[in-house]
Amino acid sequence: MDIKLKIWRQKDRKSQGSFVDYYLTGVSRDMSFLEMIDYLNKKLIENGDEPVAYEHDCREGICGSCALYINGRPHGPGDLVTTCELRMIKFNDGDTIVIEPWRAKSFPVIKDLIADRNAFDKIMEAGGFVSVNTGSAPEANSIPVPKPDSDEAFDAAICIGCGACVAACKNSSAMLFVAAKVSHLALLPQGKAESGKRARAMIARMDELGFGSCTNTGACEAECPKGISLAHIARLNREFLKEGFRS
Amino acid sequence: MNSFLNESVGRKFLVGISGLFLIMFLTVHLAVNLFLIAGQEAYNMAAYFMASTPAIRVMEPLLAAGFLLHIAYSSVLTFTNQGTRPQKYALVDQSETSSWPSRNMFVLGFLILIFLVLHLSNFWYNMKFGEMTYIEYGGVEVQDAYSLVTGKFIIWWYAVIYVAGAVFLGLHLVHGFSSAFQTLGLSNKLWYRRLKLIGTIYAVIIAAGFAFIPLWFLFGNLFS
Amino acid sequence: MSKLVSNIPGGPLADKWSNHKNSVKLVSPANKAKLDIIVVGTGLSGSSAAATLAELGYNVKSFCFQDSPRRAHSVAAQGGINAAKNYKNDGDSVFRLFSDIIKGGDYRAREANVYRAAEVSNQSIDQMVAAGVPFAREYSGYLDNRSFGGVQVSRTFYARGQTGQQCLLGAYSGLIRQISRGKVTMYSRRDMLDIVVVDGKARGIITRNLLTGEIERHSAHAVVLASGGYGTIYYLSTLAVGSNATAAWAAHKKGALFSNPSFVQIHPTSLPQLNDYQAKLTLMSESLRNDGRIWVPKEKGDKRHPNEIDEDQRDYYLERRYPAFGNLVPRDVASRAAKERCDAGYGVGETGLSVYLDFSRALEKQGKKAIESKYGNLFDLYEKITGINPYKEPMRIYPAGHYTMGGLWVDYNLMTTIPGLFAIGEANFSDNGANRLGAGSLMQCAGDGYFILPVTIGDYLADEIKTPRISTDMPEFDKAEKDVVEKIQRLMAVNGTQTVTSFHKRLGRIMWDHCGMIRNEEGLKKAIDKITGLKEEFWKDVRIPGTVGELNQELEKAIKVSDFFELGRLMCQDAIDRKESCGAHFREESQTPDGEAQRIDSEYSYVAAWEYQGEGKDHILHKEELKFEDAKIQKRSYK
Asked: Which of A247, C334, C532, C550 reaches 20 to 30 Å from B76, CA-CA?
């Protein structure tokens, strides 16, 4: 099939970017979305042009590298997919596809379709861990964890840190990302001891880094490729407020 | 306590808790308004009861504080949020992922605020500081609020404004009700869905109730 | 031979590690603060090592090419992590885990290292649970285990199909904590391009800042490579597209011997290739073979829909050939059997390069709900990619390059032949012999990073406490930086017509055809010629757009591919040298009359460690003889 691509091109962090149109013929329905861009890049290189820079690595939806805003939605059409899992079968001959990088003050664009998501690591540094040193762990089965808690913790822990929640949020809030970590660790006895402190520190860091606040629109949950629930944001709020009233 | 208001979730807490307080107020307000349907004496007595009971009198400044808190902190948060995406997307498609009211709470809030100013100047100001007529029921002399209110509602554009206000309020509540619980952390996977449903039913009742009254008088007047 | 001193401690096998821990030199806390360590790579082994070393008090500099350490490819491990906890009371023990790994590796791994890996496996589980890794639990609240990958006990801990992600994020959180304490300095978006050796010791690395193109110097008292495997040499593999051999290869060129490079595990259950533009093959967890049955039609070229092929017209070839283990034979056996059927013309799908993995019987017996709870995410993944619902018709699978048992040669202390240069995780060769068991990779990575390296590196660093902070102004740094800059300039100057990827694809094809699941001397020699020709063509005709001083993804790829040519050549050389079949290495010339692998212990019971002799020259082979004192040597049979 033949498609028209409208792709954001930007030389570097400081440059002004703009959209460039590409007409791409001979796209196969079997291709994944990223294979389609690889195909475009091959043609660009062979024509002496610069290929479109974008991030990707595992190509199976788990590393969180790929991050394209496609036709107005993070990771494009379809639910519970990362960009690398998106297939061209979702598009039709003659379609125009608009491709942008994640846009947020805290995720500055580095080049073309690559936004710098280092701010997520900075949020994690504020407390996204259990303060346990190697060697001091007790026997793994010494503390049973109720299966429902463990399962729910897992549902939060599957966050891949792709940033689609921020990209989707009209406030560029990182609440779902923070909630996934706080909720995961709050549900487990191992992480509970530091839970309130963790919630406050991570929220404070999130604010400091220029992410917006949550207005509960639910766009993050709808766009999260791992389907992380808003319920985790409620738990984050709870952990935060408990700590807020305590200190 | 002080410092946690420096953080976004702390500020949201104030918006949420004040929102729930206002929701309680709205319920009482609608209940009193429905006495309008019951007739002049019933409404005037209800209004008198509200105005003369000390426990309720005390609520008045609290209510004002609730409004101010709600408006002030949601404004602060909204203005902060405005700056978080300096470069906008060329194309945004949120049709499937979030509801229109949830994305436009501030706009709806602002419209409600304009309505509120009008509403207060129409009724509250007049009842407090204006020239009111009085009626005596069983030895008690009370303000004839009924005539003041119904006098306005029979003017068509007043009625339209009040219906519009009720619609804005309803849309604000459709999202605001469950959102407040979520912000206070009083939600989980199961209850989030329930709260959404309860919130929607509540919003419809409030909006329909408030819109019904001016229409009742407007049409009552037209066809009488 | 003098180059290979394995430093295996004395004493009985079971006491070696304790004895060693009791005898290694220690570094006082005050001295640790004066010592710098570079850790390259932030996968499970790199993150856990960096975090643990920082906890001990060393100053750690951590490097990864990704934007965040959390994205390293350990994240994609699916099935699980083994440990000898014996929670199931099914007779498991450290010794049994040890002997399973030795047997699985077809007696080509070092006993002492493997025993130690099994020994620390339990501690790794404790550590991860304490760090908040949400392993699967039973209704009792205690940890669950499953049987995995050709063993007869249930010792695999798992977190749905995402065990690697959860283990990695656990280690990452420890790393992030040390970054916030200032004990680890994180350098993300850096490719390590060379290692700096001063007076025979590893003293630093040269990196390229992938954002600015700047060539940087970093120094330390010791360097740890946790840079993973080189399976992307096949172009199409289950690895992340960015995984590469460049760091390990740079170390090799500076004198670190490279061991058993031809030992590459081909994973039997990957999705088949769908189109020419495909950049990788998606892995479906091996756990699927617990309930899925593998078959091809009995009739050659039967193009009917699988659901229309009757039971008696299906050839369940694994069950037929290996009645004892059936569909659960080890990965290499399953992979070769699939290739054999497809080469013989029984393969299915448009290309004829795939076999069916069928769940109809399991669905019938256990019900959809039970299957969904076990494999739901994998079934969804399959449907997402192929558009086929595996609840209704069988999956199609084909083998794909997956894990490299070979790597940098290390001694018992995980130190390479360059003093002060250590290699951990998949980057070293030590624990998996000629074939790795399922759920063994995470186990080794966690053991190396959390519990082994942090002890053994102290033994080396205890002699370095008087060495002041290493200056990056030394002539060795100048030279290394100059070499890197020159290589990059040479690459950019080619200015030819073909893309880097087109060369990588062609190289991958050569490797897959001649140095893949089945090898023979003639093919391997042909491959060496082809690789040499392709390399020449690359240096004449590759096209790298853009400039050096910016984010340039084509340049990054070109550097990696240029190293793959040399590594590919060495893999073939190693495969030629080893004229036996063992584990994943199957030489056509060495098979039993019924077509199974024929190991030749009398001649090949050694680790091949290759020494670099300069570009385009044959490597020199050093042998570390393997002694098996505790593991009972058996013929590996799954019949």
From this structure: A247
For position C171, which CATH number holds?
A: 3.50.50.60
Q: State ipTM.
A: 0.98
C125, pLDDT greater than 60? yes
Report the DSSP pairing between strands C264-270 and C395-404. antiparallel
Distance CA A144, CA C216 (A): 48
C188-244 tens-digit pLDDT: 999 999 999 999 999 999 999 999 999 999 999 999 999 999 999 999 999 999 999
Which domain does C142 fall in, by range? 13-266+403-464
CATH of the domain at A106: 3.10.20.30
Chains C and B touch (3+ CB pairs under 8 A): no
Q: Which residue is it, tokens 């050659």?
A: C300
- The residues in C 50-79 lying below 8 A from A, measured between CB atoms, are 51-52, 55, 66-71, 73, 75-76
The whole-number pLDDT of residue B2 equals: 52
Per-residue pLDDT band at C137 (split at 50, 70, 90): very high
Which of B127-136, C230-239, C410-419 is predicted with the least confidence, judged by mean pLDDT? B127-136
pLDDT tens-digit profile of C505-554? 999 999 999 999 999 999 999 999 999 999 999 999 999 999 999 999 99
In chain A, which residue's Cα lies nearest the Cα of C238?
Answer: A58
Least confident interval from A8-12, A19-23, C97-101, C324-328? C324-328
Q: Do the chains C and A touch each other, judged by at least 3 C-beta pairs below 8 angstroms?
A: yes
Strand order in the sheet with C222-225: C184-187, C59-63, C36-40, C222-225, C421-423
Q: Domain span at residue A229?
A: 118-246
Which one of A40, A55, A58 would you mutate to disrupt binding with C, by most C Cβ within 10 Å of its Cβ?
A58
Fold of B3-79+100-223: 3 helical TM bundles of succinate and fumarate reductases (1.20.1300)
Alpha-carbon dihedral of residues A158, A164, A170, A173, nearest 10 degrees?
50
Is C331 among the residues known to form the active site? yes
Give yes or no: residues C172 and C185 share one domain: yes
Same domain, C428 and C495: no
pLDDT tens-digit series, residues B138-184: 889 999 999 999 999 999 999 999 999 999 999 999 999 999 999 99
In a domain, C273, yes or no: yes
Measured between CA atoms, the residue of chain A closest to residue B96 is A222
Q: How many contiguous H segments (helices) and E segments (strands) does chain A have?
A: 9, 7
- Residues A102, A8 share a domain: yes
A/B interface, count of CB pairs below 8 Å: 150
Number of Cβ atoms within 10 Å of the Cβ of C605:
18
C71, C108, C289, C331: the catalytic one is C331
Give the three-state DSSP class for A92.
coil
**Residue C496 falls inside a structural domain:** yes
Q: What are phi and psi of B26, to 5 degrees?
A: -60, -35
Among C439, C73, C542, C426, which Cα is nearest to C280's? C73
Same domain, C395 and C283: yes
Pairwise CB contact (< 8 Å): C130 & A158: no
pTM score: 0.96
Residues 6 or more apart whose Cβ sits within 8 Å of residue B180: B15, B16, B17, B19, B20, B23
Determine whether the interchain pair B187/A231 forms a contact, defined as Cβ–Cβ distance below 8 Å. Answer: yes
